[in-house]
Structures are given as structure tokens and as C-alpha cells.
Amino acid sequence: MAARDEQAVIARLVEGIAQLRYPPGRLSLWVVDDASSDLTPQLLGKLQQRFGFLNVLRREPGAGGGKSGALNLVCEQLQGRWMLVLDADADLQPDTLERLIPMAEAGGWAAVQLRKAVANPLVNWLTRAQAMEMALDAEIQQGRLACGGVSELRGNGQLLRRDGLQRCGGFNEETVTDDLDLSFRFLLEGLPIGVVWDPPVQEEAVLTLAALWRQRQRWAEGGLQRFFDYWPQLWSARITRVQRIDLACFFLLQYAMPVVAWADLLGALLSRTSPVFWPLSFLAFSLSGVSILSGCRRPSEGPGFPPMNPWNLALGIAYLGHWFLVIPWTTLRMALLPKTLIWAKTTHLGGEPLEDAAAA
Known about the structure:
The chain is an alpha/beta fold. It folds into 2 domains: about 1-80; about 80-340, Spore Coat Polysaccharide Biosynthesis Protein SpsA, Chain A, CATH 3.90.550. About 50% of the residues lie in helices and about 10% in strands. It has helices at about 10-20, 40-50, 65-75, 95-105, 125-145, 160-165, 180-190, 210-235, 240-270, 280-295, 310-320, 325-335, 355-360, and strands spanning about 1-5, 30-35, 55-60, 80-85, 90, 110-120, 160, 195-205. The two termini are about 25 Å apart.
């Protein structure tokens, strides 16, 4: 785990890892203190005195490479067959590893992504919407995988076979989304990625629209950049025809449609005609609503999903409209400005009261 200024959650994470059921002496936790300026180093020092499985590495300011650089540093120390990458706010069930490792081995997977579950879905309408979005994402991921398509890593709760990661050359330090970039490199190397619904990994949802905007800009930039970086290889014989079709559909729906929809709307306003492509957008929203409904009604471990009443379903569908703002803005910024790598950190608040969190 790479940790920068995580004093609110670092102790809870280490104590949670201590509760995992796994053979004695077979589990170690490596935390990279990535130039923290808060109390994270002091807390890690105290936690090392309590937990013998905890190992801490320190990176100085300006080390470079963002989260990928921190993870590459710790990879040099590892000897195990599997590594599980976690965010600082991750929360795992005690039986996660004893269930996950056998599933990964039996499935012949080189990587496995746990379903991400929102740990604080009842804080406000925004966290409730993000809980539905995570159910939608896992539902679509498993659907793509079942059809022979492409599945992706999500950063938090990603289990990686160490020899597969080495085969890909480690984590890419020239991207702001190490997980999405690594997904494509695993794909091109023929290393299969599995997705499991249960057990989940819990994480905090952001509490404000401003925090959501910063987070989603980073996700959009990294997701789009990987298509530019690997586009020639994605159309080569290194991946199957079904996977190429899957990627083309995903790119059109996730990245092309929001941009085209705005161009279509602007053209309609200037020509005083009806939009041509917006009906396709409404169809995409409708299909997303079906996936939200299906995902939130599935039996699930971890925090419960919002009840699937008309209000919550409408909220979940309307909330997805933020991608129609984030994607065009990020595309325009990437087209006009030189490439800059800024790893925007998501603030984790732990158990702080809501009023303190809002102030922070």
C-alpha cells in the first residue's frame, strides 16, 4: 500500500490486516510512506512495535512516479507469489484471503479484482449514488468477462500474481491511473484478469462534488490516455476479435459518446434542428439503469445497497450524467494543453464525524 498523509485511516487498515485469517508467517504487509507530512510516519512507527508483519518504506519528497513509483519500490522487496494492492481506506473481511487465493489459483487468473463496495453509503445523496455506481461497475465488469470481453483492475483490492506483474515491467510511472494502465498491459501479455463479486473490498466514497470532480478527472485522463498509449497494439492479433469489439464498444460509450453528444447539441442549437445523437445517450442511460437495478438487487456481502425504489434509481441514473461533463472537459484539456502528470490524492477521513469531514 502506498500511503501519503493517511493519519485518519492507517491504524484501522493495519489492525484490519491483523484480523485476516491466513497461515501464520505467510502474510506480510508493506506500506510505503510516500513523503507524508502529517502523523502517518509516527503512527506507522508505533504500529510496527505492535505488529511484526508490518514493514515500512519511506520515500522522500520529489521521488517521482506517484503511486506507481511507490508500488515499484515495494515490489523490489517482495518474494511471495501473490500481492494484494490496497488503498489506505480499504477494509477487508477476515476471510478474504483464505477465499480469494484459492479462487485465483483455481481460475488460472494472473490478477483478480474485488468488487469495490462503498463503506459510507448513507452519509448523503452523493455517497448513496456512488454505492450504486460501484454495483453498476462490478455488474458490467462481470458481464464483459462472461462474454469473452475485457475486464479491468480498479486499484483498491486488486490481487496480482507477482510474476505476471514482472512480465509487464512493473507499474507504469508515466500514468495517473496505474490500475487502468496495468489492465491493458496484462491484456496484451495474455494474462487473464478475474472479477469477483464477493468478498468485496470496502472504501470511502467522496463527500462533496468538488472532491468527486477532482477524482473523476484523474480517472478520465488515465482511462483515455491508455487508449492513446496502446492503441496500435489493441488492434493487433495479440488480443482476440471479441476483445477488440468489446474495447471498441467501451471506448465509444465511455469516451466518444459524451463528446459527440455535446457537439451534437451545439450543432442543433446553431442550426435550430433536433439533436441526432442524444437519443443514443438516453438509451445508454436506460441500460445503465437496468444494470444498477440488477446489481443492487444481487445478494451481496459488505455494506448494503440503497433500496431500489424509484427515487434511488432515478438518482443513480441522473448521477451518471456527471461523466457527460467530466469526459468532454478532460478531452478538451488533454487536446489543448501539454501532458502533465499530477497524481491528485483522494482524502480519506476514516471515522471522523460528518461535520469535521465537511470542514476538512
